[in-house]
Amino acid sequence: MNLLNATVSKIDTLDTLNIVEFKFYDITLSMMSLDLHNISVGTKVVLTAKASNIAIAKEFQGQISLANSIEGKIVTLDIGKLLTSIRIQHKHTVITSIITSKSANRMNLKLGDIVNAIFKSSELSIKEVCND
C-alpha cells in the first residue's frame, strides 16, 4: 500500500459528493469521496492508493481523464513471469505500482527511466488524519 503525506488544499462539495484536492510536494492530487469527517483545508493527512490501481506512463504526452499523475524515477524493477513490481521515487517518497509483465516489456521499462504513476481520483483515499 502506498502512503503519501499531503495537506488538504481545497474541498468542493455538492450534496454528499466531495472532490478534495491535496498538496503532495509540488503536485496537486485529487480524491473523490462521499463521506468526510474532521477534514478541512489545511488538514495534514496520509493518503493511500493500492499498487495494483496505479498505472505507469512512459514518455506521456497529451491529456487523460485520470486526475492524478506523479512523475518519478524507477528505482526498483522486478519483472516476473506474469506481473512486474515497479518502485518510483518522487522526492522523498517511493510509490509502488504493479502492472503486467507484458506491459512492462512492451514499454521497455528500465531502472532509471522517468515515468508517471497515474491513477483515478476514486482510487485515492485518506488512511489517516494527522493531528498536529
Question: How would you describe the overall organization of this protein?
Answer:
Helices cover 5% and strands 59% of the residues. It has a five-stranded antiparallel beta sheet with strand order 3-2-1-4-10, with no helix packed on it. The chain has a five-stranded antiparallel beta sheet with strand order 5-9-6-7-8. The two termini are 24 Å apart. It is mainly β and 132 residues long. It has one helix and ten strands. It has a single domain (2-130), classed as RNA polymerase II/Efflux pump adaptor protein, barrel-sandwich hybrid domain (OB fold (Dihydrolipoamide Acetyltransferase, E2P)). It has one helix at residues 101-106; strands at 2-14, 17-24, 27-33, 44-49, 55-58, 68-79, 83-90, 93-100, 114-119, 125-130. The chain is elongated, with a radius of gyration of 15 Å. Strand 6 (68-79) and strand 7 (83-90) form a beta hairpin.
